[in-house]
């Protein structure tokens, strides 16, 4: 009986330490990249840069505004493809596909866009209904990383979304994230997004390079050339255009 009690004590103590360690890692990550207060003060972000996909290098600009508004323009063959979400409607304008007028994107196809928030998902994750779990350590391209599972919406009425985040064990910044496509022909397929080239922008550390791979092949790479935060942005930018 004494051995059983001791075993249970060690077991539950280990589980408690693991949960605490996961929170400690996230706390160090947020502090290392600028601090919770600075992240909470983030209201808008603008980025311009290059996007590489399907053998093409394309110019883009992207604007985000809390809580979840986004507007992105990609320049292709002298024309502009627009994708946006105003908090209610996701829409796009694609002249290369014969689209002369903006059209709304079906809810099922817009999940990745509409579920993203400007505020870091790890800030107040419990209040948001998310759950995190430390899965141990694992190397990513020779770098020792803490492996943290994030289950978004685990404790609310929204659809669960599972991601695996890999934090550099030395610097506590994310260097890779595993996620799974939620719609389209690649639904369920795993993708790895590699984050690098962290640069300071008004006290926040932002990754200026994001490369997404599937089945070991690069499918998209975004390189920021300029990032600005907390500029005034009119909500009209995100709204579905009225005729």
SSE blueprint and pairings:
Layout: H1 2-32, H2 36-40, E1 44-53, E2 56-65, E3 69-76, E4 79-85, E5 90-93, E6 103-104, H3 111-114, E7 131-140, E8 143-152, E9 161-168, E10 174-180, E11 190-201, E12 204-214, E13 217-229
Antiparallel strand pairs: 1-2, 1-13, 2-3, 3-4, 4-5, 5-6, 7-8, 8-9, 9-10, 10-11, 11-12, 12-13
Short description:
The protein has three helices and 13 strands; from the N terminus they run ααββββββαβββββββ. The protein is of the alpha+beta class and 243 residues long.
Would you mind describing this structure in some detail?
16% of the residues lie in helices and 46% in strands. With 243 residues, the protein is of the alpha+beta class. The protein has one domain: Lipoprotein localisation LolA/LolB/LppX (outer membrane lipoprotein receptor (LolB), chain A), CATH 2.50.20. It has a 13-stranded antiparallel beta sheet, covered by helices on one side. A hairpin with an 8-residue loop joins strand 8 (143-152) and strand 9. The longest helix has 31 residues, at 2-32.
End-to-end distance: 77 Å
Text of the CATH class: Mainly Beta
* Count of discrete alpha- or pi-helical segments spanning 4 or more residues: 3
Poorly predicted regions? 1-20
Indicate the structural class: alpha+beta
The number of distinct β-strands equals 13
Helix content: 10-25%
Please provide the ordered H/E string of secondary-structure elements: HHEEEEEEHEEEEEEE
What is the CATH topology classification name? outer membrane lipoprotein receptor (LolB), chain A
